[in-house]
Amino acid sequence: MSKRHIYLEDVPLDEARAKLQAALLAAGRLGPLPGESVLLDRALGRVTAAPVRAKLSSPHYHCAAMDGYAVAAADTRDARETQAISLRLGREAQAVNTGDPLPENTDAVIMIEHVNQTDDGRLLIYASVAPWQHVRLMGEDMVTTETVLQVNHQLRPVDLGALAGCGHATVMVRRKPRVAIIPTGGELVPPDRRPERGQLIEFNSLILGAQIREAGGEATTSEIVGDSLAGLRSALQEALDAAPDLILVLSGSSAGSHDFTAGAIEELGDLLVHGIAVRPGHPVIMGMIGTTPIIGVPGYPVSAALTGELLIAPLIRAWQGLSPAEPATVEAVSTRKIVSPIGDDDFLRVALAEIDGRLRATPLQRGAGVITSLVQADGLAHIPRFHEGVDRGEAMRVSLYRSLSQIKSTIMVMGSHDPMLDLLATHLRLFSAARRIVSVNLGSIGGLIALRRGEAHLAGSHLFDPATASYNLSFIRKYLPNEPCQLVTFAQREQGLILPPGNPRGISEISDIRGLRYVNRQRGAGTRVLFDHLLDQHGIASHEITGYAHEEYTHLGVAAAVADGIGDCGMGLRSAAEAMGLDFLGLTWERFDLVIPRRALETTSLQALLTVLRSADFKRELGAQSGYRSDETGQVVEA
Amino acid sequence: MSKRHIYLEDVPLDEARAKLQAALLAAGRLGPLPGESVLLDRALGRVTAAPVRAKLSSPHYHCAAMDGYAVAAADTRDARETQAISLRLGREAQAVNTGDPLPENTDAVIMIEHVNQTDDGRLLIYASVAPWQHVRLMGEDMVTTETVLQVNHQLRPVDLGALAGCGHATVMVRRKPRVAIIPTGGELVPPDRRPERGQLIEFNSLILGAQIREAGGEATTSEIVGDSLAGLRSALQEALDAAPDLILVLSGSSAGSHDFTAGAIEELGDLLVHGIAVRPGHPVIMGMIGTTPIIGVPGYPVSAALTGELLIAPLIRAWQGLSPAEPATVEAVSTRKIVSPIGDDDFLRVALAEIDGRLRATPLQRGAGVITSLVQADGLAHIPRFHEGVDRGEAMRVSLYRSLSQIKSTIMVMGSHDPMLDLLATHLRLFSAARRIVSVNLGSIGGLIALRRGEAHLAGSHLFDPATASYNLSFIRKYLPNEPCQLVTFAQREQGLILPPGNPRGISEISDIRGLRYVNRQRGAGTRVLFDHLLDQHGIASHEITGYAHEEYTHLGVAAAVADGIGDCGMGLRSAAEAMGLDFLGLTWERFDLVIPRRALETTSLQALLTVLRSADFKRELGAQSGYRSDETGQVVEA
Question: Inter-chain contact A160–B207, Cβ cutoff 8 Å?
């Protein structure tokens, strides 16, 4: 194995694509795959490998388009309203049903409603008819040899009908591109095994396999290969034996994996690219072993999914003669300043919502390990190379991951995130399938600022003001002086100290935490405001609290830190402690409100939300949760 | 069986939907179906039956986010560029790879690039690090008990990854709605049988089955039931025994089918609706047998497909907790005046093209039997009840059947349709997957008028002017006086008389057709202009030609009429005669040109088309067709 260090070359995306294309061309693997014949009822979504011509005209004979009587139009020439003509039934006029072939010597059909029959078997006709009236002429729809469908056409339900209608029982479609997926990484275990500490669940093969199927290909995933060059080499050989159109080597996140992949490709074939200037997704590898292309996919799930979207799915489509999928795009205003690395094509997951008639894009977490940022994303913003980023308030193009109508019925909640907002989202969804709640956690004060900037429909807030002994009102006056709002109570929640199981430090009141490692919440969080107030009440100074500077962003984050032994205690919700199997020392009940600008209040979205919030079902389920009371849920707080 | 005549009630669409909903509600069948557990790699496209919560945090331990050394941040407090600190390797600093669990008593990772190692096993550090630097905290992505996916969410590739990542190997999804399809009609045969005269191929079950699968359901189709109430009754009973969620009875086009369906439903259950005020699609039937809904689907394929789209697919989606699919819509200007029946919701298939920066919609054939109108349609325009129609030039909303980008790369050809335009379309498609040619047959003069009105990108024309003995030029001057155009030759074609096999009338020159039944082309067709010129040359008056008034719209239409014995001969292309296995008497070669307005000439679409037209491959294949010469193909005709 050569020791050249070509790792992370920073090849621009377009150049990497071009290199692979050139290698495929040289290998005779660039064009669409050959055809195979499939039965029509298996052909939905497949792509025609050749133009399809009618084998049969449709209809393949002149036929009646109505129920009635077939006649020769010429025989009716003299018929008038006032002077009926009569034709012998069974001879000059013959009964036909819709679809029946036109009898010989007839060329028109008279509707059953427009004639009368005499007792002696004659038909009375009161108006002359034109030739071919109410007749479907042979070939009206399709004529033998006519091109019915073009090549490289993805078959839809009506296409299948048309093919059958012109005499086909099968259709030649492009063979499905076959992809062999090889997951690698000594730390990985399959999804049906519970991972130990130090082990991670391998799920990139699931994402990529599904992306490939969605693009029309077939994927088979082999066993996970540990961190061993020999293991990878033999997995590659096994994959090559099955003659796939493409091999994907998925790298685990552990060091070494990338080098194994690049090394194995160099050893068995040609390494084309090692590192693409795309964020996230950098350590992509491209190579050829013989005439088989290999793509090394980065281990971080967001990078892996984007590699699938940007590089792999388009290849699968091209092999079927399809151009890359073109998602709908929209223009949206960024709610944040976005700084982009100048040398990279930067792809940002964003949440979208329509607020005051404009689409607003809020970037989601950047980390390539955070797959929830892809799950939650409404779209993908592309900041091209040589661009420094996007200013707050600047418009950018976003490719949609959801339909625009779904995005337009999204309710954007910013501010403090209560876990029970997810319960509300579930009830809202069951109430009205299209409505979604997206909750972006910025802390209570962050939510009020987001409302002021017009970035959210409503904000979650639980800010206690000791001066007035009230929640939220004085903060709204301070942060939203010019925005008339309605305050609607979401829930009463129990706050207290989250403690390790069994409360090993024997904490029984807040002053017991002096000297222990405390896990704090971020600045602007209502729980931090509450904690500061409690410290104040008990005459404790913040510098007496070890870990006051350790900031977590959610209740569950605090609980996780306590569970993991990073801290000895932290302030948070009873529900968070119980969810993680921790002890809890209740200190107080607080009110969590929804802050709704009055101009948003009358929209159908907000009305639906309030209807669900005030429904007996929701209130019952909310009140049954440990650490929650719902008796004031839905009530308007008077200012 | 009661004899009430409730056939064709004209129930408005919304009312019909509401009646079915009410009946489903009463039967306890309205809400989404219950869940079933499926493996993640089978779950793509399925819909969650409950919110999914994380079973495991992701990552489920604090881990290194980089390759390097894990340290306690506090130990590095005094490190400076100019004053390195040293830590003992294996004790205060430990080598970690990305993804490794953070060793005890460490809380940060220093990248391998930022340290130096001494010979005695110590690490030199040149800058202090913050706690949790390059560490992925436990739960950074997902925290146990957190809601990862909402209920009624259709699973995408990344969702499957997220589910696996938080500890799920399976997911509860809505059971697939099951539909039993019963085709009825004595005249129908399955697609794998060649139909006799009087028989039609049954393909509506293919269309509806595919629509149902596309919407997420499962469809099983039973054998075709003939025109017999007893047969239908037993097919219904058999379907009911399998306990489907929905039964569809597809009626053939023959009379009586509808009554059988309605009759059988009345006999076994309740008939809710018989006839909906929708065009096309009128004779829709809705009923309930016990708690099972039955929909009777009209026999004409366009009506059947629209019934599937408007009534059935939304039901299949609703049973999975999904709202109806919402196709993208665009605003397009109608190129025709459209008259709509005032009492009906009118659905029109339209072809779309972007011309001079505006989307233009051209209505396709209305006939409910013409399935090609659905195959060719780019979109569906809905003209609601109580609207009389749309004026030419008026804007209307169109739901898209293709992506907007595909429509924008469509080249709209109007005018004379040469069958070899399909060959050009094939070559263009192979050259550039996204480009499509749509050819609307209006005859040569119709094409020039369409160009004048800005309805097409180019026109096909083969108009001979005896006065100047030239093609097209004088007609362009007449019909397009203010539109500078370029004339590009498409092909030379052989025109002549299409004759029955064996030429039973012994026709050897044009004057032989006197007294025979001639099949003519429509007014404005180049072939008719040519025929008139030939008659003139031979001193034949049009009234001497029987059938001069019988107009067909295409060469293949003329050939079909001759093949079927409707006429004894007709003028048309050699290729059309040979395609239908007919005899042909060649009379002349003519030039078929493409008329391209100069302002369209420089667009990338037209440039791609001309490149393909002039390619050696295309010219070779065109020239090899019987009745075609391609030596002038692609040449510009000088005015």
Answer: yes
Verify whether the Cβ–Cβ distance A210 to B157 is below 8 Å.
yes
Per residue in A148-172, pLDDT (tens digit) is 999 999 999 999 999 999 999 999 9
Q: How far is A480 from chain B, CA to nearest CA, in Å?
A: 31
Collect all residues of chain A within an 8 Å Cβ-Cβ radius of residue B185.
Answer: 99
| A84 to chain B, closest Cα gap in Å | 26
Which tens digit of pLDDT belongs to each residue from A17-32? 999 999 999 999 998 9
Q: Is the pLDDT of residue B501 over 50?
A: yes
Alpha helices in A324-465 (DSSP H): 372-376, 404-408, 420-431, 443-452
- CA-to-CA separations, A443 to A418, A528, A552, A553, in angstroms, rounded: 10, 9, 11, 8
Q: Which of A194, A254, A429 has its CB closest to that of B98?
A: A254
Q: Is the CB of residue A161 less than 8 Å from the CB of residue B595?
A: no
Q: Provide DSSP, A424-491.
A: HHHHHHHHSTT-EEEEEE-HHHHHHHHHHTT--SEEEE--EETTTTEESHHHHHHH-TT--EEEEEEE
- Residue A156 confidence (pLDDT): 97
Point out the residue among B192, B369, B429 whose CB comes nearest to the CB of A150. B429
The residue in chain B having the minimum alpha-carbon distance to the alpha carbon of residue A208 is B157
The set of long-range contacts for B449-454, using a CB threshold of 8 Å and a minimum separation of 24, is B449/B479, B450/B335, B450/B414, B450/B415, B451/B414, B451/B415, B451/B479, B451/B480, B451/B483, B451/B485, B451/B595, B451/B597, B452/B479, B452/B480, B452/B483, B453/B335, B454/B355, B454/B356, B454/B360
Non-local CB neighbours of A135 within 8 Å, separated by 6+ positions:
A62, A63, A64, A65, A102, A107, A108, A109
Window B:371-390, CB contacts with A under 8 Å: 371-372, 374-375
ipTM (interface predicted TM): 0.92
Measured CA to CA in angstroms, residue A251 lies from A204, A316, A614 at distances of: 9, 21, 49
A413, two tokens: 């909640």
pLDDT digits (tens, 9 = 90+) for A561-595: 898 888 899 999 999 999 889 999 999 999 999 99
Strands B178-183 and B246-250: parallel
Chain A contact set for B257 (CB, 8 A): none
Query: Tokens 């920066």 map to which residue?
Result: B357
> What whole-number distance in Å separates Cα of residue B582 and Cα of residue A175?
37
Q: How far apart are CA A340 and CA A348, in angstroms?
A: 10
For chain A, the 3-state helix, strand and coil shares in percent, each to the nearest 5, are: 30, 30, 40
Amino acid at A106: T
CB proximity list for B454: less than 8 A, separation 6 or greater: B355, B356, B360
Q: Which of residues 284-343 of B touch A (CB under 8 A)?
A: 299, 301, 305, 308, 318, 321-323, 326, 328
Q: How many residues does chain A have?
A: 639
Which chain B residues contact residue A627 at CB under 8 A?
none
Of A97, A326, A372, which is closest to B141 when you measure between CB atoms? Answer: A372
**A411-423 pLDDT, tens digit each:** 999 999 899 999 9
* Residues of A whose CB is below 8 A from B434: 323
Two structure tokens written together for B150: 């909402």
Closest to A239 measured CA to CA, from A185, A178, A190: A178
Is A399 an 8 Å CB contact of chain B?
no
List residues bridging with B441 in a β-sheet: B415
CA–CA distance from B122 to each of A319, B92, B103 (Å)?
A: 54, 9, 17
- The rounded distance, in Å, linking the Cα atoms of B106 and B93 is 8
When the pLDDT of each residue in chain A is averaged and rounded to a whole number, the result is: 91
- Identity (one letter) of the amino acid at B456? A
Residue of B nearest to A301 (CA): B161
